[in-house]
TrEMBL record:
Keyword ATP-binding among UniProt keywords: yes
ABC transporter domain: residues covered: 3-239
Species for this entry: Streptomyces tardus
Organism lineage string: Bacteria, Bacillati, Actinomycetota, Actinomycetes, Kitasatosporales
Compositional bias (Basic and acidic residues): 258-275
Highest rank taxon of the organism: Bacteria
Keyword terms of this UniProt record: ATP-binding, Nucleotide-binding, Transport
Entry GO MF terms: ATP binding; ATP hydrolysis activity
Keyword Ribonucleoprotein: no
Name of the protein this chain belongs to: ATP-binding cassette domain-containing protein
Length: 293
């Protein structure tokens, strides 16, 4: 099962974000990192067929994005789940299933199962407007799963959550991936989104880390590698808790040091007065499993 973006181009307001972009979603759980404006939401939106690329193709096992089977197979949780006043958690999830083309009865049954998978069964009858932020994040995942998704796309799902709730969310995601035929792509600007990255559980939790940057050549991610390889990019002696942020800074630093500033990157960089990521120069170990360009 493979979700592939081939030669995709997309511009916002005439400024290219992706150009001739190729991406194949890896197995398991992939963390998509990068600073604000790097194009993470754009990539997710295209993969979710919420955005139509200006050029190129998107397909899951040969089924084109936008087709009925593609939409059923790909679940998407956009940045920030808005509760629907008046609907219970189960009604909300069932409603999303119905929007995805399920019959009402099936959507209702599937909503119960989806809530169980994200550990929200006890809140099934609660109004969505009453759910705490962590409950909403889990609810968003349930809406992504209700229609039997094989790919789950999550945009900043844990923004603003306390550490404990991020840990619960991370454990739920890992369980979902380990249960079987599900790939997850989680986009965030914050490498501490999944607490495991800052502990020794990184390799068991995150399968792949992919990095986009504003300054990259838009045809491929700046970096893609295992969690272990990614963390090894942090300068030697970095405390484990700081390793995710330091590794990201190093990867971004090595990309920006390569002198391949894109049109978009140059524009964005000058807009922000951005002189580079925290002054960290990228070097790090050359992991065999990762690619940094
Ligand atoms: N609807 C839009 N109209 C105009 N420009 C947009 C639009 N959406 C995104 N952009 C611009 O495209 C670039 C990529 O945005 P995108 O949201 O994909 O990045 P991101 O990595 O997800 O950033 P963030 O974490 O801030 O959401 C940014 O410079 C952004 O300002």
């Amino acid at each position: 099962m493979t979700l592939v973006l081939s030669a995709c181009g997309h511009a916002h307001g005439g400024v290219p974000v992706l150009r001739d972009f190729h991406y194949e979603l890896p197995d398991g759980l992939t963390l998509l990192l990068g600073p604000e404006g790097a194009g993470k939401s754009t990539l997710l939106g295209i993969a979710a067929s919420e955005l139509t690329p200006d050029s190129g193709t998107v397909a899951l096992d040969g089924e084109p994005a936008g087709s009925h089977s593609y939409r059923r197979a790909v679940g998407w949780m956009p940045d920030g789940v808005m509760p629907m006043t008046g609907l219970t958690a189960r009604e909300f999830v069932a409603y999303v299933g119905w929007l995805k083309g399920m019959r009402r009865g099936k959507a209702w049954q599937a909503a119960g199962r989806a809530l169980e998978r994200v550990r929200l069964t006890e809140y099934a009858g609660s109004r969505t407007s009453r759910l705490a932020p962590d409950g909403l994040a889990l609810l968003g995942s349930a809406t992504g799963l209700v229609h039997g998704a094989r790919v789950l796309l999550l945009d900043e799902p844990t923004a603003g959550l306390h550490l404990h709730h991020r840990e619960v969310f991370q454990d739920v995601l890992r369980e979902l991936v380990d249960e079987g035929d599900l790939r997850v792509l989680l986009a965030t600007a914050d490498p501490a989104t999944l607490p495991a990255l800052a502990t020794d559980g990184a390799a068991d939790t995150v399968d792949t880390v992919t990095v986009l940057d504003t300054d990259q050549d838009e045809s491929a991610p700046l970096y893609s590698g295992t969690a272990e390889d990614f963390l090894s990019r942090a300068p030697e002696g970095t405390a484990r808790g700081r390793a995710p942020a330091a590794a990201l800074a190093a990867v971004l630093g090595s990309g920006r040091g390569s002198g391949r500033d894109s049109e978009r990157g140059s524009e964005r960089g000058s807009e922000r007065g951005d002189a580079g990521p925290d002054g960290v120069q990228g070097s790090g170990a050359d992991g065999a499993e990762g690619t940094a360009r």
